């Protein structure tokens, strides 16, 4: 099982244990994308390229950006002086080593694993797609899962094949469908969160709207705006995970996580300190938010409730005045009501 980030791997490992009575089966290997490249593809047959074994160390991420004028397919092209693989060229190196070894890299995988599961498919770009094609041609059963709306990361910064992968990878799979006899299944239903969160996420990123199927008997479920003056009481009562767009967004000193870092994670409740773009959107959700991928990731993390901290309430068709009960008091909120908003728009029309 492969995911791009360490947090993605932790999420898979925790969910696997949860569904298997706390046990991580010894036959199941869960790794990051770069661990998979290094341990399973590059190191075993490094001698096909380097002429000797035990030379490859780790990865060099220092040259992800900028220009590298090293001659193609030479040792300096793929490695630094310590024989760390240049991360930008890791997939390209894996493909080359497989070719130089007469396909031994993929053959070894076939003899080792019956299935490979690739999570966060939309993070693969450039030469990753060529490597993925090699896996699809193998005898291994390959399962890929992804969401183009969450294309916030890239495994590397490709110098060529820039349009391959990323949010376009699902178009690539349409081309792969007949070539490699694969099945492409599109599913817009999610069991992660309640329906109000799904409806709000559809405003953030309207294409291919999703449906939330999670049903839970919990108080204060849905999407809210709360006043900054009530934040302390809200956090003390619900203990939400706090998210922000980046370090430039104040969270009043509360520990928080950036939107992009939260990808692949699931929380019961999320509290967001919005940046200027998100504040503007909350005041008028009918306007499109630019570059919505990170925002979409953030608003789809919670199961039960999603709340935004605001300086003042500005009700609109989507957010209406309401209250929620905390342990010692009841606080005012704006509650997201998607069905009600449709009715109001219809009446105005």
Quickly describe the structure.
The chain is α/β, with parallel strands linked by helices. Helix content is 34%, strand content 18%.
Helix content: 25-40%
CATH architecture of the largest domain: 3-Layer(aba) Sandwich
Overall mean pLDDT score?
90
Gyration radius (Cα, Å) is: 23 Å
Stated plainly, the CATH topology of the largest domain is called: Rossmann fold
Q: Uncertain runs with pLDDT below 50, 5 residues or more?
A: 343-349
Number of strands: 15
Strand order of the largest sheet: 11-10-12-13-9-15-14
What would CATH call the class of the largest domain?
Answer: Alpha Beta
**What structural category do the secondary elements indicate?**
alpha/beta
Distance between the termini: 51 Å
Number of helices: 13
How many domains, in number, for the residues? 2
Tell me what portion of residues adopts beta-strand conformation: 15-25%
What does this structure look like?
With 349 residues, the chain is an alpha/beta fold. It folds into 2 domains: 2-179, Rossmann fold (3-Layer(aba) Sandwich); 190-348, P-loop containing nucleotide triphosphate hydrolases (Rossmann fold, 3-Layer(aba) Sandwich). It is built from 13 helices and 15 strands. It has helices at 6-19, 33-42, 47-50, 75-78, 90-100, 104-112, 127-137, 169-179, 195-204, 231-238, 276-283, 293-299, 338-348; strands spanning 2-3, 31-32, 59-60, 85-86, 115-118, 141-144, 189-190, 211-212, 222-227, 241-244, 257-258, 267-273, 302-310, 319-325, 330-336. The strands form 5 sheets. Strands 11-10-12-13-9-15-14 form a 7-stranded mixed sheet. A hairpin with a 4-residue loop joins β14 (319-325) and β15. α2 (33-42) runs parallel beside α5 (90-100) and α5 crosses α7. It starts with a strand and ends with a helix.
């Amino acid at each position: 099982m492969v995911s791009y980030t360490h947090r993605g791997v932790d999420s898979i490992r925790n969910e696997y244990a949860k569904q298997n009575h706390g046990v991580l089966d010894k036959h199941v290997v869960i790794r990051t994308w770069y661990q998979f490249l290094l341990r399973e593809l590059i190191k075993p047959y490094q001698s096909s390229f380097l002429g000797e074994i035990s030379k490859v160390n780790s990865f060099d991420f220092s040259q992800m950006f900028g220009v590298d004028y090293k001659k193609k397919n030479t040792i300096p092209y793929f490695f630094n002086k310590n024989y760390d693989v240049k991360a930008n060229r890791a997939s390209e190196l894996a493909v080359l080593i497989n070719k130089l070894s007469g396909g031994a890299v993929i053959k070894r995988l076939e003899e080792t694993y019956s299935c490979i599961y690739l999570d966060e498919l939309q993070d693969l770009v450039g030469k990753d797609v060529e490597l993925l094609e090699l896996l699809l041609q193998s005898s291994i059963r390959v399962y890929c899962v992804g969401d183009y709306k969450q294309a916030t990361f890239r495994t590397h910064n490709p110098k060529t094949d820039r349009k391959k992968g990323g949010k376009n990878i699902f178009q690539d799979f349409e081309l792969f469908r007949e070539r490699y006899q694969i099945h492409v299944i599109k599913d817009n239903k999610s069991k992660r969160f309640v329906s109000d969160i799904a409806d709000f996420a559809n405003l953030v990123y309207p294409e291919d709207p999703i449906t939330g199927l999670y049903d839970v008997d919990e108080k204060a479920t849905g999407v809210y705006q709360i006043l900054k003056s009530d934040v302390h009481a809200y956090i003390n009562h619900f203990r939400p995970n706090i998210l922000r767009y980046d370090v430039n967004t104040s969270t009043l000193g509360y520990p928080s996580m950036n939107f992009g870092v939260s990808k692949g994670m699931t929380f019961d409740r999320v509290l967001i300190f919005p940046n200027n773009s998100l504040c503007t959107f909350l005041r008028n959700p009918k306007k499109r938010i630019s570059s919505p991928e990170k925002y979409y990731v953030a608003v789809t993390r919670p199961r039960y409730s999603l709340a935004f901290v605001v300086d003042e309430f500005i009700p609109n068709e989507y957010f209406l005045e309401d209250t929620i009960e905390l342990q010692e008091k009841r606080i005012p909120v704006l509650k997201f009501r998607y069905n009600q908003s449709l009715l109001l728009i219809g009446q105005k029309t």
